[in-house]
Amino acid sequence: MEMRKKETREVNTMETKKVIGDLVINGNGSTAGGTFAKVRLNGNGKVHGDVECEDFETNGSSKIEGNVTATKAVINGSSKFVGDVTTGNFLINGSAAIDGELAFEKLEVKGASKVTKGVRGEKLVVEGLLKAGGDCEVEEAFFQGSFTIDGLLNADKIEVSLHGRSYAKEIGGETISVRKGSTTLGLDKLFKVLSRELTVDVIEGDVIELEYTKAKVVRGNTIKIGLGCDIDLVEYKDQLQTNKSANVGESRKMD
């Protein structure tokens, strides 16, 4: 079966440029951008212009009005980026709002993140909330929480543990698993969960296992439709298993 393939893209971080030292703001302060070894924004810091550095960390509330390129980035608190963000390892412990595109090697979201445009990288781990205004293209994606992706979620491997409502316009990958999340993790209290469900227009993959998913079309080689699913059309090539309690409008075996 012909599958949609994502582009292979590399995440470029620091280029060889003149480093002018470290940038540190403690308390309230603002400064121009530049190329640094380390950036530390502690308190209420604002940077006007592009920033390039090896190590980027914010603690408190910060705003960067420009593009950020870093080998490593950590957000503790609340940060707003007016521009694109390109990192190697990116850890979000609080909240991050990115008015642009986000590229990374590994992204861990343990709070809330909002990206107005596309998200791309190698490994994505979400233990909170992710909102993306464009496509999300990664090698591996692991969700324990909630997400809203206005475009395509595309990865070789996708594992979703539902806590709250999640949405993607389309999902494509080799192996796709969607299950109801465990209540023992305490994430349901964080999201004030009323229901746990994934809503998506189209899911396409090689091996697909779904629970509590509402979709118009599910298409793949081997498909398992489990508890809480409401699917308009299932198209499968090799094997289809459907839970008796699931609602499937129509199923077709493809040649």
Textual characterization of the structure:
It is a single chain. By secondary structure, the protein is mostly beta strands. It folds into two domains: 18-108, no CATH class; 118-255, no CATH class. Helices cover 2% and strands 69% of the residues. The chain has a 17-stranded parallel β-sheet that branches. The radius of gyration is 20 Å and the shape is elongated. The relative contact order is 0.09.
What's a quick, concise take on this entry?
The chain has one helix and 17 strands. The protein has 255 residues and is mainly β.
The overall average pLDDT, rounded, is 90
Number of helices: 1
What is the distance, rounded to the nearest whole angstrom, between the alpha carbons of the first and last residues? 9 Å
Q: What fraction strand?
A: over 45%
User: What is the molecular shape?
Assistant: elongated
Q: Write down the domain tally.
A: 2
Largest sheet: 17 strands, parallel
What is the alpha-carbon Rg in Å? 20 Å
Family: Belongs to the bactofilin family.
Organism: Anaerobacillus alkaliphilus
Pfam family, one: Bactofilin
Protein name: Cytoplasmic protein
Layout of helices and strands, plus pairs?
Layout: E1 23-65, E2 68-81, E3 85-92, E4 95-98, E5 102-103, E6 106-109, E7 112-115, E8 119-120, E9 123-126, E10 129-132, E11 136-137, E12 140-162, E13 165-180, H1 187-191, E14 197-210, E15 213-225, E16 230-242, E17 247-253
Parallel strand pairs: 1-2, 2-3, 2-4, 3-5, 3-6, 4-7, 5-8, 6-9, 7-10, 8-11, 9-12, 10-12, 11-12, 12-13, 13-14, 14-15, 15-16, 16-17
